[in-house]
Amino acid sequence: MNRYACMTGVLVLFLLCNVASAAIKDIYVSYVGGVNKYFYDTTTFVVTPDTLFSLPTVAGQLVQPQGIAVGPDDLLYVAGQDSQTVSRYNRTTGAFIDVLATWGGSLLPTGITFGPDNSGDGVEDLYVATW
Q1: Cα Rg for the chain, rounded, in angstroms?
Q2: Which of 87, 88, 129 is nearest to 108 (CA)?
């Protein structure tokens, strides 16, 4: 097989996988006042707000959100810089679930992501960047 046939096969597989996937994606935007969710239609390139979903900043739960990640449990994880917390929310309704972690002192969580399972429990670990 020559390199062009291989490239064509990879491109077709890529297109099939993307066409078979959902055409609408969720977009989460954080700002000083909270987090909003938008729907992005990858077919028509239209962004529409989700009127049911808005996470206002609430003392003890979320103040000045910085980092957002969708967890392996399909919950929304949000790092609140001024509240020094990582809180979990329902991705569909925006309902608060709990505060997963709290920092003290000068540590301010700003970015979060899920990555390799270094704990060995079979679930991706949560990684938090702090100031």
Answers
A1: 18
A2: 129
